[in-house]
Every structure is written in C-alpha cells, then in structure tokens.
Amino acid sequence: MIRRLALIAALTLAPLAAPDTATAEPDPADWPAVLAEAKGQTVYWHAWGGDQRINAYIEWAGAEAEARFGVEVVHVKLSDTAEAVSRVLAEKAAGTLEEGAVDLIWINGENFAAMKENELLFGPWAEALPNWQYVDVEGKPTVVNDFTVPTEGLEAPWGMAQIVFYHDTAVTPDPPRTMANFLDWLQANPGRFAYPEPPNFLGTTFLKQALYGLIEDPSVLAAPVDEAAYADTVAPLWTYLDALTPHLWREGRAYPQNGARLRQLMADGEIEIGFTFDAGEASAAIANFELPDTVRTFILENGTIGNTSFVAIPFNASAPAGAMVLANFLMSPEAQARKQDPTHWGSGTVLDIDALPEEERAYFDAIDLGVATLPPEELVPVLPEPHPSWMVRIERDWTERYGVGQ
Amino acid sequence: MIERIASRVPERFAARAEAGLRLAPLLTLTVMLGPVAAGILGTLGPAFGWLPALGAETPGFGPFAALFDQPGIGISARLSLVTGIGATLISLAITLLVVAALQGTRIFGLIERLLSPLLAVPHAAAAFGLAFLIAPSGWIARLFSPWATGWERPPDILTAQDPAGLALIAGLVVKEVPFLLLMTLAALGQTDARRRRLAGLCLGYGPIAAWFYGVLPGLYAQIRLPVYAVLAYSMSTVEVAMILGPTTPAPLSVRLIDWMNDPDLGLRLVAAAGAILQMALVGAALLLWRGGEIGVAHLGRRLAAGGRRFGGDAWLRTTAGLLAGLSAAAVILGIAGLGVWSFAGLWRFPEALPDTLTMRNWARHGDGLLAPAITTCIIGVAAASLAALLAIACLETEHRHGERPTSRSLWLLYTPLLVPQTGFLFGLQITASAAGFERGIVAVIATHLVFVVPYVFLSLSGPWRVWDERQSLAAACLGASPWRVLFAVRLPMLLAPLLTALAVGFAVSVGQYLPTLLIGAGRVATLTTEAVALSAGGDRRLIGLYGLAQAAAPLPAFALALALPAILFRRRRGMTVAR
Questions:
Q1: Stretch A9-22: mean pLDDT, rounded?
Q2: Calpha distance A344→A334 (Å, rounded)
Q3: Which of A16, A77, B189, B517 has its CA 20 to 30 A from that of A374?
C-alpha cells in the first residue's frame, strides 16, 4: 500500500520536475549565440531585498532586460546573501548538478571566497562580456580582486561601495574623524554610537576600519592571517574596543542587527553617528522622510574601506546565458549611471567614466548627487579590504570577547 | 447543490470512494509526518559529520565538539530553555486565571470576540509592534516625553533585547495567550465546567478556587498538548527571538540560523548539530514540564485537602482582567503603531504622532503587495482545503467504523507542532531537493500541510464528534446512503465549524515563514516572506505596511466563516449542531 502511495505521489509530482534541457555551456566569446540562447529564459536573481530603492532598481533592470533581450528577471529577495549560498550547497549535496534554483547572486567577500573554494561557481565568463571593455581595472583594482581574492572571471563587478559616516549637523556639528577621536567623543557623549553586531558584514567592516586606524603597518592585512603574529597584530584593536565598549549604545550589552537598524536608531535620535557602505544612503533617507534634511556624510582622515559588489553564476544555474546577458546589461554605462544617480540608488560605478565614448558619458554628466552625498573626488583615500581570513578570525574573537558578554 | 450531487453518486464510485476513505488516516499521517521524518534524517547526517557536498565524509562527533566549542553556547541554550519555559508558564497562568475569574462576565465576551483577530496577527508583526511600543524611543516613551519624563532625546536604556530575554518572553506571551484561550474555550465545552464551578461555589469556595479545584483537573488533560506545543514553539521561535531577543549571545534558534547563513560553509555541520541539541532541549523541557505537572497536581491535592476556601479573591480577578487587557492591548497598540508608521512622513522623537501623514508609502508599494498577496491566497486556500478534505475523510472513517479517538492518535497529530521547525526544515530542504520535489508552489503547499493539517483537524474534530448521531440514523432510516448522509445532512449542518477550520488553516498557512522560504527555494514569494525580507531593511514604514497586510490577510477568511452560514441558513435558525 505504501508503495502504491509512493507511486501516486511520484506521478502527481513528476510534471513539476523541469524537463532535461541542458545544452552545451554558453560561451561569452560567442556573444550572439549567448543572446540567442538567453532569449525566452527566466533568470532567478538572488539579491538582498532589504532596501526599497535597490529593489526598485533591480525591478527596472529586469524590465529593461526583458524588453531589450527577452530575458525575464525574477528578483528573489534575500534577507542574507548566504541564503543563496546555502541553497546552491544544498543542491550540490542533493546531487542537483544542473537546473538549479539560483541563476545569479549578488555577492562579494567571504561568500565569494567560500563559493570559489568549494567550486560552486560557473565560469570563467565575466571578462569576456562585451561591456568589460569599459570597466576601470587600472583605477579600481578591487574589480578583479574581491577582498584580495582574485576573481578570475568568476564574477562580474557591478558596483563600488565605500564606508561613509553620517551625522546630523544640527545635533553633532563637529563629528570625530579618527579612531582615537571617536573614543574621546564617545566618552563625552555616552551611548550615542553603535556598530552592527559582527558577523554582520557592516559591523565587521567597522572592526577592520578600526584595525586600519590602530595598527602600525596595515600592509600585513593584504596577506592571509599569519597565525604566529596574529595576536600581537590585533592587540591594539582589543585594547581600543575594551575602552570603547562601555560607552557604546546600551553599553555594548545589545547591538543593532544591521546597517538598516543603525539608520533607524539615527532616525529615532538614539545615536548621533551612523555609517553605511552606500554613499547615497543618507540623501535617499532624507528624501524618504527617514532622516532630517540636516544630515550630512563624511569619511575619516585616513580614508575608509571600500570594496566592489559583484554578480556570480552558480555552477548549476538553469539559465547561465540569460544571467550573463543580465550581468552585461548591469555593467553597461546606462545601467551604471542610473545606479549612481541618488534618486534611484546612489552607488558608485565600476566603469572608467573618462574613457567612455561621448554619448555614454553624458549619462553620468546628468546626475545630481543629492544634498548629503559626497562627490567621488572627496571619497579618498579608499582603503582596500583585508584578506577574508582576517574577517573570519576577528569575527570569532570578537564574539568570544564581546558577543557573549552578558 | 451538494445534495443533488450526492444523490447521483453511482454505486461503483461509492464502492471505490469507500475504499479510498479507509486509506485516509494513513494518507494524512504520511502527509503530516513524512516530511518531519525525512527532515530529521536529513539533519542527522550532517550533525554526525556526513555531508559529502562539503567533503565531510567521516562520520563522528566532530560537529558536536565544534558546537560545544562555540563561544557562549551554554548561555544560548539556557536562554532558549528559560525564555521558553517562562513564556509558557506565564501564558498558561494568565489564560487559566482569565477563564477562572472572568468566564460569564461581559469582559469575557469582549475577550472572546477579540480572539480571532489576535490569533490572526502573525508573530513577527506582533513582535515588531511590541518592539516599537517598549523601545526607549518607542510609542510609550514618546507619549510621556518630554512633558512627564523630561526626555528630549531617547534615554540609553535597554528594554527590547535585554540579556535576560524578558522582552522576548513578553512578545511570546502576548501571542500565546490568545492561542491557549481558544484551546481552553474549546475544551471547556466538554468538561461540564459550569456545574462543577457552581458546586464549588455552593461549598463556599471563592470563584477562582472553585474553578481551579473543580474544573482545572479535568480541563488540563485536554489542553495539555496545546500547552506542550506552546512550549516547543516558544523555545525554538526564530522571528520573535530575532526582533525582541537578546543578541549577546542570541538564543539557540537564532544562532542556528546564523550558522546556517555563515559564509564559512563548515558551520553548516555545526548548525545541524545545533538543531539536534535544540530538539533534545525541547524534549528535556517537555519532560521537565511533565514532572512539574505531577508536582503541581500533588500540591493541589494537599491544598484541597486542607480545605481553605480562598474567598477573598476579588483582587485576583481584577488582576486577571488587567493582565488580559494588557496582553491584548500590547498586540493591538503595536499593530496600530505599525499602521501609523505606514502612513508616516518624518516622525522623530519625542513626537507622539508623525509631523506629516502621507499616502506615498502605500502608493509606492501597493502594486508590489498584489502578487505576493495572490500567491499567499492560492497557497492558503489550497493547503486549508486539502487539510479539511483529509480531516473530513479521517473523521468520517472514524464515524463509519465506530472507532474512538485514542490519545496516541492525538500525539501523532501534535508531532509536527512539538518538533522544532529548525530541527527538520534544513534537512527537509536537502531531502526534498534530492527527490526533485522542491521549488514549486506545490511543494510549498505540501510543506504547509504539515502544519495546517493538525490545526484544521483539531479545530474540526470537536464539533464533528459532538454532532448528534441520531441525525445520521434518521437519514439512514429514510433510505439515505452513508455518502448522502455525509453530503446532505452532516456537512451542511457542520458548515460553520468547517468554515472556521478552513479559516484557521488559512491563517496558519499565511504565517509560515521558514517552510515557504526553504522549500520554495525563494521562488515562491508570499506576504510573509516579503515582509521578513523587507524587515531586514529596518524601515518601519515598510514593516508597518507589510505587517498590516500580513495581519489583514486571514481576516476575510474569518469574516467569511462567520457570514456565510448566517446568510445560507437565515431561514433555518433553529438548526444547531449539538446540545
């Protein structure tokens, strides 16, 4: 009887399994063939869905891809990028080697390093895309080095991000601009600053930013952690945090979960200085009534950490051709300019604007950056991300020292 | 119309349907327990070091060693245990006090009417609402600032997310009290409560003592399983703990999700081991609770033998009313707060209301709500209908073969509610993926059935079993076949409870987050998955908007369940189910 039930179940569910249509892997060098194959495909793009502006931008890009190339795009909204990594991993565990659920992932850093190491990615493909010619590889070396890990064409850059701090000029006219000043300022204004709880990436980035400002020779951060020297290297960070923590928001007994929560605390007046990876966030929040129009952004004296966002295709994607067409469109001057426009998003471009043809450059010239957004020339210097192994070690030690402190 | 169809059922079909009906209990159990079993198996492998996709191929206790090596793991486990047991104790105490002290009063009528809407509010929305109420920059502080408190800026006080988990307990209590109240009310009908209480009053006991001595012992046996379900849920909730729970460290359930989502893929094994620990903790807590029951019963008997009457309990009755009011108000005000946020322009501390109200948030996101709302409806209607079909088939089989419900079958029914979701859903994701079942809306419906079937069954079985069997006998004497009796007599008479069961099932389906996300492969977007994804962005306007939509989704179902029988049977008011 149970066998009969299983048979019934199999028969009812069988039509759900997609027919086996796997063909030869698309080759981006033969772009017309990729375009032809992509037509009619549906691309499931797994991307963080916590910001309405970004969601609207993704929706626009999807509509354009459908209109121009016949590629339908579905934005799968994640609350954490690792969900998509988990899914690909679960599929590999289950032996789903093609027709996977994920076609494109918005990714960088640890997640990319983990997927690359476990051979969960399709490619190389990114550097053969037609729009790769406009990418600023010289001026923005992070477009081929994701947290120092060589991308090797396994992911296509689509945005530049850099830490910017924001403050309300009506409340805090003169915010601190070095790590040492931060401590002094916080002692005078207890509870008015917080960073998201590591391993949230923004919270960990704050730790790395602090590390940059505190250690003598930041160049060691570019290489993998040297276990022998690790404890001595990071000792200044723990000394600093030991002094800082009692003056943090809620005395460091609770931490905000993520950057969005930080913005919320700023809006509620609980903290006076926030920070984000999104140069246009403050302007957008003002336009959205979330923050008062006296909020402005700034960066630290020695510069802030910057990195690049990418899109990658899993090894078992169902529509790799469609995903490539979408990635190529995201890299186009038109899409990049819209991305930089704070009325739509306000995130930096990966392209070399000066090297663009005249009519393509016009897209960028027309952008109004918004009241609280720093122009690109003021966002210097950009500090490179440390090797991912630093993040892993520091996160773990942080949790032991401050994350279980009750 | 049903009657006409029923009368035309051909003999051949009737025989086959009869055979199919006999399979119903087995099919129901497979639908409900199959995924749980498959999921636990899928979790056990990685927990003991078996996940070939990651190159983990040497079974052993490595993942458990790594789990116990995680910083603060002891505190996380303790938090799960303490907040879970605390929330269950307080919820049960409030529920019993309210019923003991207030049944039959006008306030109680009001509470009863509030039950369905309170139950329909999803846990996550209620938690967000509560968080906004109690935060130092929240609504309560705003109402009293700056005129009473002198606060021009929010004070730096830890309210939500306190390390002891008190806010988490509060968030659980406000949602579990309505559930336990509903279950208690359903059980009261079968306990002869009024006469027992009256007997106690006549013997000179105070109203609350009379109820606790006379009614509770018989009643508790019937609400035991719902209480266990509350305990298991409170210990393993993810959404509520993320919003209101402590973070340094977080309760075990939240850390499971963190490990599962860590870019370091090796932590998947730790997460699986953690899921097994979570299940063991829930099991231990259930045993502990069972021990507590025995102890309390013993104590109760000694107290009763002592003969004290506890006459002066007026203060306790007032307290009960206040507690019930407070717990309902927390949910209602919280949702109201979210509602105001969804229309808010700039709204800074300490303003009690926004500077400006705007339709912009709704105008901008109204369109985006439509598609997930439709998906939510399709899944909810399908899951609730299938569950109702299974429940009817099981109950009808039971009726035709004269079987009596056993406590063993009730335990089986509750199993999906007693096993922590985090324990089996990740395993289920892998198993389902291997079997090629995942991703589609059908797979999501099938997974929702695991949780919907128990509620629909529980909701329908009570009225079904108290239905007066003589109606069936009378119809049979008039020559009606068992099928005709079912379609022409029983189901029409049970229309109201059937619709209520459907509405309950629909509401349960609407609230499912993890099952939808994991089994839908992120491709099935419902109001709940959208709400949680957007809440990652922390914009209260959006959280308010989606929270309202999510809370409102089950309401039409409940309204329909009330209105439809009233309209259909407006000329047959005398027709009642039983009693």
A1: 37
A2: 13
A3: A77
